[in-house]
């Protein structure tokens, strides 16, 4: 057989051996690898019948605790029925995790596929040519993110906190609406810390699951007796708004230089570029959210109100 014949056979073999996954009777074909996180893999998949594309999140569970965390993410996604928070299309748990006998399980979550990628992807493209978003567009996007955060903070019976809000965890729909994704770190927002053991446990959890440059100061050095609440997200939201304006969050340069992010965050100093194209009002909104003392930080309602006031102010100038 000539080389062309072999090439055709190898190509056909490749097409025929594409991985497929059955989830509750629906077959999904794996098309591409999208991303890899600390606890999961995300692939681009296609429904074999409808040809509609989705993102498939795979979580390898090494213990019952891992399974519970994954199932908790699904539970939260389904509880928060809001257009600015990701929804789970379908899921299945395969296998049984048991750390004693060294077996694992796989949790598969079918999620919407956002072809525009994340807000971070969008900012990276703009950063190459220093293409700053107009302030009105920044505020419009930001208010959509705030509505998603509000849906989490308004959850019943207890408020929820995302605890890993960042530009990479905000996807953009076809109409450029923001959607908060990756609720794997989401948890009950209000935690009463009673003693050093509680403080150490929360601090270790934050180190494991909250991105360092977006992490609220109270999670770097958890006090032995304190209340942690949903305003951890408000600090992160301030970092997100800063990044929307200047392509990076305030502490990215510190991290990139290898300096201590913890010291930088706990200093509470937020620096804005001198040649900023944005109004002082927008910078004040960032500072309003990034108050070092969490008890002085606003709740999401006040953030939305202040952002809406800025939109009205901009519109009145037109």
UniProtKB/TrEMBL annotation:
UniProt keyword annotations, A-Z: ATP-binding, Kinase, Nucleotide-binding, Serine/threonine-protein kinase, Transferase
Show the GO MF annotations: ATP binding; protein serine/threonine kinase activity
**A Pfam family name for this chain?**
Pkinase
What Enzyme Commission number(s) apply to this enzyme? Answer: 2.7.11.1
Q: Gene3D superfamilies recorded for this chain?
A: Transferase(Phosphotransferase) domain 1
Q: What class of enzyme is it?
A: transferase
Name-wise, this protein is non-specific serine/threonine protein kinase
Organism whose genome encodes this protein: Hermetia illucens
Q: What is the lineage of its organism?
A: Eukaryota, Metazoa, Ecdysozoa, Arthropoda, Hexapoda
């Amino acid at each position: 057989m000539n080389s062309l014949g072999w090439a055709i056979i190898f190509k056909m073999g490749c097409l025929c051996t594409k991985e497929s996954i059955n989830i509750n009777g629906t077959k999904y074909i794996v098309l591409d690898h999208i991303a890899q996180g600390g606890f999961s893999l995300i692939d681009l998949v296609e429904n074999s019948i409808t040809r509609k594309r989705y993102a498939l999140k795979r979580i390898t569970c090494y213990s019952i605790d891992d399974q519970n965390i994954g199932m908790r993410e699904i539970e939260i996604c389904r509880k928060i029925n809001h257009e600015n928070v990701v929804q789970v299309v379908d899921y299945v748990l395969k296998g049984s995790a048991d750390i004693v006998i060294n077996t694992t399980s796989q949790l598969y979550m079918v999620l919407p596929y956002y072809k525009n990628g994340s807000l971070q992807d969008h900012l990276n493209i703009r950063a190459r040519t220093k293409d700053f978003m107009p302030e009105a567009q920044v505020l419009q996007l930001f208010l959509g993110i705030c509505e998603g955060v509000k849906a989490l903070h308004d959850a019943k019976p207890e408020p929820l906190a995302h605890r890993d809000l960042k530009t990479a965890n905000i996807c953009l729909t076809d109409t450029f609406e923001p959607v908060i994704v990756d609720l794997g770190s989401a948890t009950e927002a209000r935690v009463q810390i009673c003693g050093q053991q509680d403080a150490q446990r929360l601090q270790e959890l934050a180190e494991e699951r909250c991105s360092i440059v977006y992490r609220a100061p109270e999670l770097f050095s958890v006090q032995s007796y304190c209340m942690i609440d949903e305003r951890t997200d408000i600090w992160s939201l301030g970092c997100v708004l800063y990044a929307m304006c200047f392509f990076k969050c305030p502490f990215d340069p510190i991290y990139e230089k290898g300096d201590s992010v913890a010291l930088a965050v706990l200093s509470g100093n937020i620096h804005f570029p001198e040649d900023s194209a944005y109004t002082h009002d927008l910078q004040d909104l960032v500072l309003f959210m990034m108050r070092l003392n969490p008890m002085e930080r606003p709740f999401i309602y006040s953030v939305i109100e202040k952002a809406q006031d800025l939109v009205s102010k901009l519109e009145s100038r037109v």
